[in-house]
Amino acid sequence: QTVYLKDYTPPEYLIDSVELDFDLDAQHTQVNSRLTMRRNPESAAAGVSLVLTGEELELISIQLDGNPLTESDFTINLETMTIQQVPQQRAFVISIENRINPKANTALEGLYLSSSMLCTQCEAQGFRKITWFLDRPDVMTRFKTTLSADKTQYPVLLSNGNKIGHGDLANNRHWVSWEDPFAKPCYLFALVAGQLECVSDSFTTMSGREIALEIFVEQHNVDKCAHAMQSLKNAMRWDEDSYGLEYDLDLYMIVAVDHFNMGAMENKGLNVFNTKFVLARPDTATDSDYEHIEGVIGHEYFHNWSGNRVTCRDWFQLSLKEGFTVFRDQQFTGDRTSQAVKRIQDVNALRTRQFAEDASPLAHPIRPEAYIEINNFYTLTVYEKGAEVVRMLQTLLGAEGFRKGCDLYFQRHDGQAVTCEDFVNAMEAANGVELSQFRRWYSQAGTPVLTVSQHYDADAQQLHLTIQQSCPPTPHQPDKAPLHIPVKLGLLAADGSPATFVINGQQQTDITLNLTEAEQSFVFDELAEKPVLSLLRGFSAPVNLNMPRSLEELAFLFKHDSDTFNRWEAGQQLVVQVIFGLIEDLHNHLPLHLNALVVEAFHSLLNAEADDLSYQALLLTLPDESYLAGQMTVIDVDAIHHAREFVKTTLAHALEDDFNRVYLIHHRDESGKFDADAIGRRRLKNACLSYLSQLESSDSYTLILAQFEQAHNMTDQMAALSVIVNSQHPAKASCLDKFYQQWQQEALVIDKWFALQASSYMPNTFATVQALMQHPAFDMKTPNRVRALIGAFSQANPVHFHAKDGEGYRFLADQVLALNTLNPQIASRMVTSLAQWRRYDKGRQKLMKQQLQRIVMTEQLSKDVYEIASKSLA
Ligand code: ARG
Ligand code: ZN
């Protein structure tokens, strides 16, 4: 059942071209496919039989070169069709007719029904649920697709490439033909059919070609496409400016669908998107939604080069396209908004979520070596850590060298299906460097730890720095070899200004150290006074730092570090240390007391000048409970919550005037404005509001309720509702009700309504979640809704999900088993919250393990759920 990277062999057959005819119907779609094939000269295999993949297909007929095949010529099992004999010396044609039922397809891979439209999701292996094929990314072919369907139900018929013909048929039916001139693997195939409105625009490329841009949505969403369209144009321009990459077809289409397992999909010329990452109007979408939409639109657009023109040889190479493309979308968003803020958000997500994956039984390298179900490997590790690995290459090679490497990569491999190794080779060749040790980042799992010690020698005016690296064991990898780790650093003088130092005979104020050994020492000369070290600037490598720091030193860096990332990080670590002190006091039943240093640090922050207000808001935000949990040997969710709330409430009381003042300065009605200043004002003001809500005073409630009542934008409305939901305010129920009434027609807003309640810390949350499962608007077949309710409860509500009685775990397992039959991909995502069971106390361990065992023992478990649950227990 397990597939191994080491078993890779080239395909035995190639497909030169394919013609697909779809006779579309919600329940009985007929697919006719004509594959022009031949032996692959590169394949050493001796076999003459042809094995095609296909799942859940009903065969109507099959022919070889026009001659019908009979039962003795081929065999079909659950996942394959084997044709005993095909010509070895010449091309041949396989013609297959089969039937599928999109409406019964609740797994949402292959062809399925979303609301009233038909659409496809083929990555990674959904095409085999459409027709028999060589469903592997290294088989690239040219597609010609004809769609026919009822004209009233399916007036719009889309597929990849260019429209080459259309016409009417009898019985109110019509047809449209599409041809994609670029050879592609079948995972990039797409079709869409439905009653869709088209929002159109155009883009002129750097070489002067005019590209038609079309966004297709249901009628009631036409008023929410402007931002997505602008984002697409921004992305197209950015890829030209930053990478010299231009779009290739004459048409770029995006379709938004309500039912989607992931965020979006980069099908050639025809992206299919979760509505969540397309639709936005100031009153329905938050500032973060706006940013995510631009980011995801960019991500899918950038895939046209990093993914489609150059694709993956096999699915073990997934990070080749995903890590690189995430890196590209991060750069894009940073350029469009604030590099400082974007970097902090990305690192924060990486450290809370990917580091947890790395520390769990599900840990795997960015290039995994084995899988049971590939859909389980669309992970934070492959995506986000993969992006960090690309970022380290850029750090090591410099921006110019990195760009040269990218140019060479695209030049060498355009039109090919390649490997991570090819990517690193191009980086080496373009820069004349050697990256053999760096390659270990692709094969070693786990988060490395850097243990740092320093010593200042006043007589010699030297700073001695020693860094040791190690990496905890992960499944199948007990011992790790040292990695090549770029460590950016700077030094600060006593007055907070950058300190100049000499290293390797060069005078500098900052440097990137190359860490390659298990332990290395560095000497910084000509330092007349003891400097303060700012290490791992910009989070130059995805590692944990183990470096003793005094609170004073952290407060100093929080005030003065010129590196925006490390300045934020100093504030975080200051609070982290304080919170862990408080947790110890809690464990020892001691009264809590907040260190004055923290109050002072926040006080001066609130009184300092700031130009990037979004950044300022981040500086004010306390570390997440899940980040804190990741730092604890035995996670104590209640103590974490209690200690963090104590810090927040104490700060609110001590700095009430500051929070009030800053709130009022930035509180104004500028709905519909999405420039950095307006967004920054909202973020900063709402950060203050969140502190003020801790006071539970009538003044603070007045402020909050007024904001809720008067908000004309979703950011402010949600910020207010969120603090109300996490309070005991008597108006809570009526506010929630009002919000629901106002937005019941807007599915994406109702998702927020579910998620907010599911992540509430208030005592009766579990009962609320159970009640919401019965709400008429809840639907197990809609992934966004499942993520909003079950996902938010199990992933964003540590206190209630980990309730001591184990009811949260039992609830989750119930839902996983219900989803297992409906939608295995979504089900297996939900299981991951149990994977970390070893990190909790004995009592909780036992309860979590029981539910995992219950899941594994269930009959007819999908591969998806089986893999995650069984690995979690291993
Ligand atoms: N390639 C898509 C993206 O990241 C993700 C699609 C993954 N789908 C899946 N079913 N595993 O842009
Ligand atoms: Zn992607």
What key attributes describe this structure?
874 residues; alpha+beta; five-stranded mixed beta sheet; 33 strands; 41% helix; binds arginine; binds zinc ion
What does this structure look like?
The protein has 874 residues and is an alpha+beta fold. The chain has 26 helices and 33 strands. An eight-stranded mixed β-sheet has the order 6-5-9-3-2-12-15-14, with no helix packed on it. The longest helix is centred in the middle third of the chain and has 34 residues, at 380-413. It is globular. The mean pLDDT is 98.
C-alpha-based Rg, rounded: 28 Å
How many individual β-strands? 33
Helix content: 40-55%
Distance between the termini: 17 Å
Weakly predicted, low-confidence segments = none
Layout of helices and strands:
Elements (H helix, E strand, L loop, with lengths): L2 E2 L8 E11 L5 E11 L10 E4 L4 E7 L2 E2 L5 E3 L3 E4 L8 E9 L9 E5 L2 E5 L20 E9 L5 E4 L2 E8 L3 E7 L11 E4 L2 E8 L5 E8 L8 H18 L7 E7 L6 E2 L4 E5 L12 H16 L8 E2 L5 H19 L2 H20 L11 E2 L8 H34 L3 E2 L1 H12 L8 H4 L5 E9 L4 E9 L14 E8 L8 E3 L2 E3 L1 E6 L3 E6 L7 E4 L8 E3 L4 H10 L3 H24 L8 H11 L6 H8 L4 H6 L6 H18 L1 H11 L9 H18 L4 H13 L3 H12 L6 H12 L3 H12 L6 H9 L9 H14 L1 H4 L5 H16 L1 H8 L10 H16 L5 H11 L1
Parallel strand pairs: 2-12, 18-19, 19-21, 22-24, 25-33
Antiparallel strand pairs: 1-23, 2-3, 3-9, 4-8, 5-6, 5-9, 7-8, 10-11, 11-16, 12-15, 13-16, 14-15, 17-18, 20-21, 25-26, 26-31, 27-30, 27-32, 28-29
Helix pairs in contact: 1-2, 2-3, 3-4, 3-5, 4-5, 5-6, 8-9, 8-10, 9-13, 11-15, 14-15, 15-17, 16-17, 18-19, 19-21, 23-24, 23-25, 24-26, 25-26
This protein binds arginine (ARG) and zinc ion.
Zinc ion (ZN) binds next to helix 3.
